[in-house]
TrEMBL record:
Top enzyme category: oxidoreductase
Gene3D superfamilies: D-Amino Acid Oxidase, subunit A, domain 2, FAD/NAD(P)-binding domain, Rieske [2Fe-2S] iron-sulphur domain
Residue ranges annotated for the Rieske domain, each copy included: 317-401
Enzyme Commission (EC) number: 1.10.9.1
Organism expressing this protein natively: Mycolicibacterium chubuense (Mycobacterium chubuense)
GO MF annotation list: 2 iron, 2 sulfur cluster binding; metal ion binding; monooxygenase activity; oxidoreductase activity, acting on paired donors, with incorporation or reduction of molecular oxygen
Gene: petC1
Name of the molecule in the record: Cytochrome b6-f complex iron-sulfur subunit 1
Keyword DNA repair: no
CC annotations in GO: cytoplasm
Keywords annotated in UniProt: 2Fe-2S, Iron, Iron-sulfur, Metal-binding, Oxidoreductase
Length: 401
């Protein structure tokens, strides 16, 4: 990544990175991080103190780590792709992949009505890589081998000194602190407030608490930006990179980056391009999509899918006792199983859709921070009007009649 940045005139910053404990209870985890760094041959150091305004009980420091703005980096990759004859399609969503050779990828224009026939398109290819967050194909059951996670970030203008190094807590509640250079000055970036998608009662409360935390430790901080992200936690802690199904080398997958997409995504690209072009990267075996190392994740997978079953049942029962109309910025699922509705009010507009996720029949819940419907089973997300935001679902919620 850094070589690409250097060769294409992209700026980045070198700052010390810290995996730290906020209190004594987290010190054991932080020392485990130090042991892992040492085993990997990294020049990590233990520090008892840091020049920061927030609680710091001790942690691991890695010197001179890279801080990269992903947008210029991605724009540069697009330019490189097109320079070599590639084509980037925007405003389309992949829905199915069929055939054996060549493969046929069905695309739907996202700006068109979902049932409009002329919105469908097909692309053919000898090899296809599904890098869609979680695969949009259920073959391989990757949706059952990962847990969808949501997290949030806030940017602030801060008077006076700003924290220069990078900090990520190893204990809860997660706090991530760094800065971002902009033409008008450095922004403080604070992240955290994460939760499993669709399983938080009021995510907005946690985001508000995150903002309070920043204001407490950086007096005078003024929030300027808000955004959120979705990541997928694999059951055995390592990404899945390789065939969607064992021994089928024409349909490949890259997923399960667990909030480390800027590095794991590059590693996945190297591993897949090597696999396709006939190169050799021995370390890529650790990311294998089908491997004996998955056995270590079986207990986690069983627990994870028991929780999915519980949330499936809860989603169909809980609306029986729900009543009343939602307030501005809120959404409510109510009604008997045969006539359930999901009603939300955003910017004064009331919208009603079916709450049943088209992926595997989960009942969605409302995210009052992102103002969106979320499926608690496998992380599909939908706009207030039911439009699909994120898979594994490939179509939106049905409008209520």
């Amino acid at each position: 990544m850094l070589r690409h940045c250097d060769e294409h005139g992209l700026s980045y910053q070198r700052e010390d990175d810290h995996a730290y404990a906020q209190n004594e209870k987290g010190l054991g985890t932080a020392r485990s991080v130090l042991a892992a760094c040492k085993e990997a041959g990294l020049d990590a150091q233990w520090v008892d103190e840091a020049d920061v305004p927030f609680p710091f009980a001790g942690g691991v420091r890695l010197r001179e780590q890279a801080q990269i703005d992903p947008i210029p980096f991605l724009s540069s990759l697009v330019a490189e792709l097109e320079k070599h004859g590639g084509t980037l399609l925007q405003g389309v969503r992949a829905t199915t992949v069929s055939g054996t050779g060549p493969l046929r990828v069905s695309l739907r224009r996202t700006a068109e009505a979902q049932d409009t026939r002329d919105a469908q398109h097909t692309v053919t290819a000898q090899k296809v890589v599904l890098a869609t967050g979680t695969p949009v194909l259920d073959r391989g059951f990757f949706f059952a081998r990962m847990e969808a996670k949501r997290s949030y970030c806030l940017a602030f203008d801060v008077p006076g000194d700003i924290t220069r190094s990078m900090y990520l807590s190893v204990d809860s509640p997660t706090r991530s602190v760094r800065y971002a250079p902009t033409p008008t000055g450095d922004k403080l970036i604070v992240g955290g407030a994460g939760h499993t998608v669709g399983r938080a009662d009021h995510p907005k409360n946690a985001v508000t608490e995150l903002a309070r935390w920043a204001a407490l430790h950086y007096p005078g901080a003024v929030q300027t930006h808000y955004w959120s992200a979705q990541d997928y936690h694999p059951i055995d802690e390592l990404p899945y990179v390789g065939p969607l199904l064992p021994k089928f080398e024409n349909l490949l997958v890259a997923t399960g980056f667990d909030k480390w997409g800027m590095t794991n995504g590059v590693a996945a690209a190297l591993a897949l391009s090597s696999r396709i072009l006939g190169g050799r990267m021995d370390w890529a075996a650790a990311f294998a999509s089908w491997s004996p190392h998955e056995l270590s994740g079986i207990p986690t997978a069983l627990q994870l899918n028991m929780q999915v079953g519980l949330h499936l049942a809860k989603g169909w029962v809980a609306p029986l006792t729900a009543s009343g109309e939602p307030e501005e910025g809120q959404g409510i699922v109510s009604g008997a199983p045969w006539r359930m509705t999901a009603t939300s009010i955003v910017d004064g507009v009331t919208r009603t859709v079916s709450p049943v996720c088209p992926h595997l029949g989960g009942v969605v819940t409302w995210n009052d921070s992102d103002l969106a419907w979320e499926c608690p089973l496998h992380g599909s997300r939908f706009a207030p009007d039911g439009a699909l935001i994120e898979g594994p679902a490939t179509r939106g919620l049905t409008p209520s009649r």
